[in-house]
Amino acid sequence: MKKTVLIACLILSDIIALQAQEIFEDTNNLYGLKDKTGNIIVSGKYDDANDFSEGVALVRLNGKYGYIDQTGKEIIPLKYDGADKFQEGLAGAAIIDKEEQRRKYGFIDQTGEVIIPLKYHTVEYFSDGLAAVKLDGKWGFVDKTGKEIIPLKYKYVGYFYDGLAVVQLNDKFGIIDKTGNEVIPLIYSKLRGFSGEFAAVKLNDKWGFVDKTGKEVIPIQYDEVWDFGEGFGRVKLNGEWIVIDKTGKKVM
């Protein structure tokens, strides 16, 4: 039993030591890898490097991007013309299309395998299992198989959070769910993501708040608003900032 516990402790110690490694910048403005005690694992050699995300770090050298693990091993070759950090197991990566003379983005996994073809003009991180992608000026969302779950038709999209995302079609904003259904209709001139139960919306130069069903719970009558926090929101009416509760009643 004691031997088993000792082995388990040693394994845990190794894991903690592995996770303790970090990127550093040397006096020549080059980036390397060291542990928390300051021991150099990889001397400064990269032109740029990101902090670790999901156990790997994005690095750049001579204009090319790749990834290293926490031992300093280059697990994905530095061959990409653009790349992002890993999020939910995948990372955006790009190669310059010589014919179009522009970057084409897709997604790779931590083995370097291309999971979603490098065909988009821009991609964002995965969030809630979906990633925003842009092609020919239009945004939509793909899942982790590359299937376009929400059509590429929007002028702007935000990240999915708790199953909802802000989108803009033409000049109007609303919120959709992960099936593409409009939870908040696309009728507002501006819209912020949910802060707690409510989202701030702007219509005809006035601000108010809607809930997650799209109901306007705080009238659209304010000159400016701050997001709700802990049941209260700051709003500006007739030049005066006041605090209201979730019913719209002034409390301060």
TrEMBL record:
Secretion signal, residue range per the UniProt entry: 1-20
Keywords: Signal
InterPro entries attached to this UniProt entry: WG_beta_rep
Statement: the UniProt record of this protein carries the keyword Signal: yes
PANTHER family noted in UniProt: DUF3298 DOMAIN-CONTAINING PROTEIN, GLR2918 PROTEIN
Protein name per its UniProtKB record: WG repeat-containing protein
Species this protein is from: Taishania pollutisoli
